[in-house]
Amino acid sequence: MTPSSTTGREATRSSGEELILTAQGVRRSFGGLTAVDVDEFTVRKGTITALIGPNGAGKSTFFNVLTGFDRADAGTWTLDGRDVTGLPAYRLARQGMVRTFQLTRSLADLTLVENVLLAAPGQRGEGMGGALFGRRSWRRQERSNTERARELLARFGLDRMAEQPAGVLSGGQRKLLEMARALMCEPRLLLLDEPMAGVNPRLVETLLEHVRQVRAEGTTILFVEHDMDVVVDISDDVVCMAFGTVLATGTPAEVMRDPEVIDAYLGSDEADDETARLARRGHQA
Ligand SMILES: Nc1ncnc2c1ncn2[C@@H]1O[C@H](COP(=O)(O)OP(=O)(O)OP(=O)(O)O)[C@@H](O)[C@H]1O
Ligand SMILES: [Mg+2]
């Protein structure tokens, strides 16, 4: 932790701001490599929070652990004050925490609408519950789920392709499909792993607008992003990771001015690009 960038903010954080996500002492190792070693991590409710850091910093692993796609070796975490440590992804989704992946995971052979429907919560048609629930209400629920899936596809400009297999989509469209699928669960906290990566620059602004809109509807957003312009543009808070640990937490300007953060990028492959941008952004901010 960097005292200069965290002390003041931690004080505000502890004095009554509502935290939707907190994590303490989260560790994950692969063999001899400690991929994640996070002492303290928080996300304020209602914010767009960016998780930045050079390649291999542990961002995706941290996401995987928090969202139940990987197990932690140690640590605890809470969602809205409730301990959700180690819960599997489907249970977290029911509690309002949903994530997308750095590499999109749409099922290529299923249609877009089927892809979105897969994420529908409370599939009452399945199992004993479905039998007891009755065929008619099951159909009604399926109809309303399908309607909602189509609305979401329309929202992301994918409605004309609703019946086409997801395999035909471009990289950017797949990111939009992932967002649609995540929103099907009506999340309170949405985690996006590099939502803009591989997206045509013309689509980036659209995607950003969608992210802002989702937040305006009351969903907190935690997203991993490499593009510092994007980070400055839409984030309230920024957390920088390197070598598995949290280096700095604060406003975009605070974090980008932090010498430890700049050092972390200097030592990475992205140094030329990102350090120059960090320095420029930190200077402007
Ligand atoms: N399943 C795994 N087995 C072994 N090592 C892994 C595994 N997953 C991640 N790692 C290692 O853990 C470290 C953190 O990786 P991670 O993917 O979390 O980084 P990241 O910050 O998301 O990087 P990027 O910006 O490139 O996506 C890296 O050194 C990576 O090689
Ligand atoms: Mg990653």
Question: TL;DR?
Answer:
With 285 residues, the chain is of the alpha/beta class. It has helices at residues 3-14, 59-66, 89-94, 112-117, 127-133, 135-155, 171-183, 201-216, 228-234, 252-257, 259-266, 271-284; strands spanning 19-30, 33-44, 48-52, 74-79, 82-83, 97-99, 189-193, 220-224, 237-242, 245-250. It has 12 helices and 10 strands.
Structural notes for this entry:
The chain is an alpha/beta fold and 285 residues long. It folds into 2 domains: 3-106 and 174-281, Rossmann fold (3-Layer(aba) Sandwich); 110-168, no CATH class. It has helices spanning 3-14, 59-66, 89-94, 112-117, 127-133, 135-155, 171-183, 201-216, 228-234, 252-257, 259-266, 271-284; strands at residues 19-30, 33-44, 48-52, 74-79, 82-83, 97-99, 189-193, 220-224, 237-242, 245-250. A 6-stranded mixed beta sheet has the order 6-7-8-3-9-10, sandwiched between helices. Helix 6 (135-155) packs across helix 7 (171-183) and helix 11 packs antiparallel against helix 12. The longest helix has 21 residues, at 135-155. The two termini are 21 Å apart. The structure holds adenosine-5'-triphosphate (ATP) and magnesium ion (MG).
